[in-house]
Design a protein that fits this description.
Number of strands: 2
Distance between the termini: 14 Å
Order of helices and strands: HHHEEH
Shape: elongated
Helix content: 55-70%
Strand content: 5-15%
């Protein structure tokens, strides 16, 4: 059963649209834009109605989100101040960049899965 999302588009144009959308997501900046892109990815996946492995996708998204967030927090830009521990710098810039990048990467996974 086909959903009402991207599965209605023929295979080659859908592939081109997906690759173009993922490339354009790289150019997005700002927390609001990243949240909008993530919500759009969730909606596109929900409209597809072909999600059989939703537990795997949820695990994969959670793991990706956590790893990106933790990496950006631990390796924050040192120009924003914060606390430095050996090679790690932790500050608020890393937290905001981590959430923004994790939302964008998760949206890329969702759009690719849709």
């Amino acid at each position: 059963m086909k959903g009402i999302g991207l599965s209605r588009i023929p295979e080659v144009p859908r592939f081109f649209l997906t690759i173009t959308a993922i490339i354009l997501m790289q150019l997005a900046t700002g927390m609001g834009t990243a949240a909008f892109i993530f919500i759009t990815g969730v909606v596109l996946l929900a409209l597809n109605l072909r999600l059989r492995n939703w537990k795997f996708l949820l695990f994969f998204l959670s793991l990706t989100f956590f790893v990106l967030l933790a990496g950006n927090i631990l390796f924050s830009p040192s120009g924003c101040g914060g606390n430095a521990y050996w090679i790690f710098t932790i500050n608020s810039c890393g937290i905001s960049l981590g959430v923004e990048n994790a939302l964008k990467r998760s949206a890329m996974i969702l759009v690719g899965w849709a």
